[in-house]
Amino acid sequence: MAFWDLLIVASMPVVKILLISGLGAVLSTRYAGVLTEDSLKHVNKVIFVVFTPALMFASLAQSVTFEDLISWWSMPFNVFLTFLFGAILGWIIVKITKPPEYLNGIVVANCCAGNMGNLLLIVVPALCHEKGSPFGEPSVCKLNGIAYASFSMALGSVFIWTYAYSLIRSSSQIHEEKEFKNGLEEKIPNIDYAGETSKLLQTIQIIPEVPSSGGDYPSDKQSASGLVVVNSSSSKKPSCFQAWPRKVKQYMKKTADLLFEELKAPPTIGVIAGFMVGAIPPVNALIVGASAPLRVIQDSISLLGDGAIPGIILLMGGHLVKGLSSSKLRPMIIVLIICAKFVLLPVIGIFVVKGASNLGLLPADPLYHFVLMIQYTVPPAMNIGTMAQLFNVGEQECSVIFFWTYLLAAISLTFWSTVYMWILFS
């Protein structure tokens, strides 16, 4: 197909997203007063606890089977590579620009965690129904596209609510420590000790007198004042070999606690439950399908999940309006994040997917290849904003990043979608 024809096909889904997010932006203005600051937080929590897990479960239980999980083995690896390359680029940006320490995790998370679920569930099926779509029969294309997008959404959520979640939580801990330290500095003035006294206290320990069993005179280590002076350098300290097993044990315990906490996140629970129902045929037949005895459970959860996508896109518009305000992020940081997300990562994605295809590691379906490529192209995940609000750190900075990345995502998604289809069908 001609490049310009593919460009028209690729632009229509993006226009739909712009219309819905534009409505959310209008509702968030002070003139409408619908999505206020408190409303955004409350709706974020509802989406986090109810809508997103329901969407995960309903999509995976209905569209993913055990055979699909085996044949799509390359998609988890591809999602891992998007996070790996994005994290590397984010780390480079942090080292170059040196933002405030508590914003390091925010920058890296926005570089590595992409919106692999909501946007794909809108873009991919919409491409199938566009006139002149190169992906074949619209009904078959839509069914496969929803399956690919659902699996991508589930995988993206696993990585987002583990790695990106830990980054935001670490940023929150650093921010809390900084705020606590600043509060102490405001309440307690700095105390300047005398130089000699300070040095003495750093080098000696003063221990109360212990009665000597050797006579009336003080012992060699006993001073005339009745105090025993011991050099701190003579005290026994555990060697590095003795301390190493304890540090490893503490690190493993901390990692296990972190993983356990992340597994308890509602979206992660929805992903695990959806995989179990979809991959186990007896359970799937019990819940999914028109003749399933417990189909009311699936129907109810699907009804809840249907509210996730429009709700998240509306909130996207609300976050974009907040992004018009100032933040502590320098413009250079935002420019570098945009370059990483919309220039470097898509080029990396083309080489990765085409290389895997040439090696015969991917299924023959071009729509599957397209989904793998577009995973490198999507803007930052809106769930990062949800996490920022939950942990009360970097909300304003995330809003500014979202504003500029989603503003340019309309151009980037249209352009790269056209390039991907041209590569696959030329």
UniProtKB/TrEMBL annotation:
GO CC annotation, single: endoplasmic reticulum membrane
Main localization category: endoplasmic reticulum
Keyword Flavoprotein: no
Transmembrane segments: 6-26, 46-64, 70-94, 106-126, 146-168, 269-289, 301-321, 333-353, 401-425
Keywords for this protein: Auxin signaling pathway, Membrane, Transmembrane, Transmembrane helix, Transport
Domain of life: Eukaryota
Record localization: Endoplasmic reticulum membrane
Topological category with respect to the lipid bilayer: Multi-pass membrane protein
One Pfam family from the record: Mem_trans
A Gene Ontology BP annotation from the UniProt entry: endoplasmic reticulum to cytosol auxin transport
Task performed by this protein: Involved in cellular auxin homeostasis by regulating auxin metabolism. Regulates intracellular auxin accumulation at the endoplasmic reticulum and thus auxin availability for nuclear auxin signaling.
Family per similarity comment: Belongs to the auxin efflux carrier (TC 2.A.69.2) family.
Protein name: Uncharacterized protein
